[in-house]
Amino acid sequence: MLSPWVVVSPWVMVSPWMTVPTCHGVPTGHGVPMGWDLVCSYRQLRQMAQSIYMAGVLVGALVLGGLSDRFGRKAMLMWSYLQLGVMGTCTAFAPNYASYCVFRFAGGMALSGFGLSIACLVVEWIPTPYRAITVAITGFAYTLGQILLAGVAYAVPHWRWLQLTVSLPFFIFLLYSWWLAESARWLVLSGKAERAVKVLQRVARINKRKEEGEKITVESNMKEELAGLKSSYTISDLVRTPVIRHIFFCLSIVWFSISFSYYGLAMDLQNFGVSIYLIQVIFGAVDFPAKVVVTVSLSYIGRRVSLMVALFLAGLVIIANIFLQTVRTALAVIGKGCLSASFNCVFLYTTELYPTPIRQTGLGFGSTMARVGGIVAPLVKMMDEYYPFLPPAVYGVAPVVAAVAAGFLPETLNTPLPDTIEEVESRWACGRKGWMRRGRRVRSPQSHPSPLPATRGAAASMPLP
């Protein structure tokens, strides 16, 4: 994460230089306040920098998601890597507060583009039976980075050097990303069938299934899908048809509530009386058991039930924190674990519910709703001066409401990814049970509705090169 902030979630960061001297004290440490005199009447500008960064993440989720559906997952991923590296490096050498905020805003935008592109590439390449496990492994990598960041921040206390240390690796990631394969699904549905065939054949060769890959042709495998392509898709397609609109509103509630409650929980960390570095490690470590449990649940019980249970438990734990003050730290850690599990669920669930042409747009709007939740949470926190019990009550009720909304979503366990809006509409037309039955019935390559039937055996079974 590109900042002098310690990350405690995908949305919340706490600065190691939050404790600063008073107006008449002697500055200590190596934080931004020392260099730019952000103390006394200018102290609130430190929080403004965080808000500007979050605004960048929000704008990036909304804008870059749509651009990825237009220009491709790989292209947007590479651009995000470049932007993260350049903006992070520029932030480390920012000469003043204004330029620092500009670079942070641009870095926040790139962070959204990176996360959304990675999610779509993983989901669109990995076969259905291994999708939950792959998403979980990706989540574990994030958690490991979160824990390692605490050690790096402790070892590199000066914020400029810390910023540079975590920014330079993105240039290495940019070089590596040249070898990644573009989503074949996106290529076909964007009218680039010939290029899709070449990508699939390349992946088949790496999988040592060259003969199967050579059988993939535009004429035999993709003719029907190419004939039904729509010229372009926009954000209005998220609400144009009844089923997609239903999915869109339910997922918006879920994304908003997870972020809203997580942000509210994280804002109370300073009252635990524990080192910020230790909290970083604890909040990262709890993700491992939470994500293991939810991965098993996603694979065998289903996406919908797993999401509902994780949200409901998170809500109950946060509400219990009002009455059980003696174990509030333990309850906060459990609540964080449940919300992390919910985040894993909704990330996978969202990509499986939306069809390929608007998948990244839908995921981007969901991420945008999460940023809105992070913005609204501090406003609710302000009410604790008048009604101390109200903020945790609201933070606890939100996940429960989201659990109810998740109950109105269709199950996607063992169902192939939808490739068109019409396919999603027809699946839902049979009702919720019809969706599940059809998904389990259509499991062979011959009956797979994807325009890439050969990829299940030849290409899709391998991780990205």
Automatic annotation (TrEMBL):
> Which UniProt keyword terms apply here?
Membrane, Transmembrane, Transmembrane helix
Region of interest: Disordered: 439-465
Q: Where in the cell is it found?
A: Membrane
UniProt cross-references to InterPro entries, sorted A to Z:
MFS, MFS_dom, MFS_trans_sf, Sugar_transporter_CS
**Molecular function in Gene Ontology:** transmembrane transporter activity
Which Pfam families does the record associate with it? MFS_1
In the bilayer, the protein is annotated as:
Multi-pass membrane protein
Q: Which residues cross the membrane?
A: 49-67, 79-99, 105-126, 133-155, 161-181, 247-265, 277-298, 305-324, 362-380, 386-409
Q: What region holds the Major facilitator superfamily (MFS) profile domain?
A: 1-414
Q: Keyword Transmembrane helix: yes or no?
A: yes
| Transmembrane as UniProt keyword | yes
Q: Which GO terms describe its cellular component?
A: membrane
Which protein is depicted?
Answer: Solute carrier family 22 member 8
